[in-house]
Design goal:
single chain, 516 residues, alpha+beta, four-stranded mixed beta sheet
Length: 516
């Protein structure tokens, strides 16, 4: 059995990674902390006990929190806003694709390597779940690539329920597991009052594979039973999705991947993470036509046992986050490797608001499929759009990108209506911007007006639990002159890797409040 790493080794690896990301040598870190290079070397190799005082010095020198005994929910950011950003940033790979492909790796009995996986809380929670049931997950190449090896038999009874309940993504285990077990349970993440409605599209879509789920949450688990006769009828399946959802489409794709014969999915999501799923499954030998459309035809395999490597595509939502930060702070920045196919509608709407930007010639992502550009955001005097801003399924404005238009509208001259028709309560989170002196008028749970330009003021706030609204508040604090505090930022860490560090790279004055 492999020996578990000591706390000194784990902390040492963390320090080394942060140092390399900052581009420092061991000698430069030693000088910044008033110690010797040999001491830094011993610390990074886990060969030296490290005091809390030294942890604090290293955290301050590296500009990031190394250790917190408190739960990550209690982490906070201090932002001194009102500063222009500048420079360039490279867009990370997709968080949503990483989550989906971690689940899809369960289809493969061989070795799977995913390149440049986002090191975020959501991914960490799923890895904890996978490791608890016997899947081997190993970070490689200075923690940038992830190797996944699924055992012949999973130990579902050992599942880390606490980690599973922190991510709704656990529902995507339905697709891979239905081929392994006649009966199994998955922990329910969230309140039972939304259980049946939340997963109803999944249940309806997977009926064709013999899946029956008790989602009444009486036990706190989804109780799954798979009719083997229906599952093993390798006839053509024709599935119409009642909801064009990303995770629903991914679940059906994974179910179809290990089902010989033809599965046609009508009403499929063609969104970026679904396309990544399709590209990955193709590398596993699954035949898929219609990628990027709402009708997918899948020819599955009876078994998958191969060594495969896959490069995830870049994250359009992260790209939109930096676009919003640039316009909100009246800055010029360049985004390298922006997935233009999934930003085109957003950029057209911004053009209607007088936004200025430049695009490079297109080139391909490392997966050989996704179209990228380098995008330079220019200082712009924005005006409110004539029409309301609302999301639509791809190729419309991405649902996850809609919240960023509220903070952009806050610096635009005039009144902008934002219609968030998809989520029941997300529009309400936008009213948090009023604490930064943004004029927000909530019409109902789905519609609101934002009037600009804003005479920003700083504030101390608790981050919304929803990921994108939390980032919107953070961007507003970047725009507000003075010192703001954003508390309980786990929701941001759940979906963004080193967001504060990367904003500092662009000149933002943002630091985590370190406290042990």
């Amino acid at each position: 059995m492999k020996k578990a790493k000591s706390y000194q080794e784990v902390i040492g690896e963390t320090i080394e990674q942060m140092r390399l990301e900052k581009g420092w040598t061991q000698g430069e870190l030693a000088e910044a902390t008033g110690t010797s290079q040999s001491a830094i070397h011993r610390i990074e190799k886990g060969g030296q006990n490290i005091s809390l005082e030294m942890v604090k010095k290293l955290s301050e020198a590296l500009g990031n929190q190394i250790l917190s005994i408190n739960d990550s929910v209690s982490q906070s950011f201090r932002i001194r806003g009102g500063k222009e950003l500048s420079g360039e940033i490279t867009i990370n790979t997709s968080k949503n694709a990483a989550v989906a492909l971690l689940m899809a790796a369960l289809l493969n009995s061989g070795r799977t390597v995913l390149h440049k996986v986002a090191r975020i809380e959501e991914v960490f929670r799923i890895i904890e779940v996978l490791e608890s049931i016997g899947v081997k997950c190993h970070w490689q190449n200075r923690h940038r690539d992830l190797e996944i090896i699924s055992p012949r038999e999973l130990k579902l009874e050992n599942m880390d329920v606490e980690a599973a309940r922190k991510t709704r993504s656990v529902i995507m285990m339905l697709g891979p597991l239905l081929h392994r077990y006649k009966k199994f349970e998955l922990p329910y993440a969230g309140g039972c009052s939304l259980g049946v409605r939340t997963i109803e599209p999944h249940l309806k879509a997977l009926e064709s594979f013999g899946v029956k789920v008790d989602a009444q949450c009486k036990s706190g688990f989804y109780e799954v039973e798979v009719n083997q006769h229906t599952l093993k009828k390798y006839e053509d399946r024709y599935i119409v999705l009642v909801e064009r959802g990303d995770t629903v489409t991914e679940n059906v794709l994974m179910a179809a991947a290990l089902s010989p014969g033809r599965t046609t999915i009508v009403g499929a999501s063609p969104n970026y993470m679904v396309q990544d799923m399709c590209f990955f499954l193709e590398k596993l030998g699954v035949k898929i036509s219609g990628i990027g459309t709402t009708t997918l035809t899948v020819r599955g395999r009876s078994a998958i046992d191969m060594d495969v490597e896959y490069n995830l595509s870049e994250d359009p939502i992260e790209a939109m986050s930096f676009i919003a930060a640039a316009y909100a702070t009246h800055s010029k920045i360049t985004l390298r490797r922006a997935p233009i196919e999934f930003l085109e509608i957003e950029l057209e709407i911004l053009k209607s608001m007088n936004a200025r930007f430049k695009k490079s010639e297109e080139y391909l992502s490392n997966n050989g499929r996704t179209r990228l550009v380098d995008l330079t955001i220019l200082k712009s005097d924005l005006v409110a759009p004539v029409d309301k801003i609302h999301p639509m399924p791809f190729p419309g404005l991405n649902i996850d990108n809609l919240p960023f238009f509220s903070v952009i509208a806050a610096v635009a001259e005039g009144r902008t209506m934002i219609h968030d028709w998809v989520f029941e309560n997300r529009a309400i989170y936008t009213t948090e911007l009023a604490n930064l002196n943004v004029k927000v008028e909530l019409l109902d749970a789905h519609r609101l007006y934002v009037e600009g330009p804003t005479n920003w003021r700083p504030a101390e706030l608790v981050a919304p639990q929803a990921l994108r609204p939390a980032v919107v508040v953070l961007i507003g604090m970047l725009a507000a002159p003075g010192t703001s505090i954003l508390r309980n930022v786990y929701s941001i860490n759940r979906g963004y890797q080193d967001f504060a560090v990367r904003l500092r790279h662009l000149g933002a004055d943002i630091v985590p409040l370190t406290g042990i």
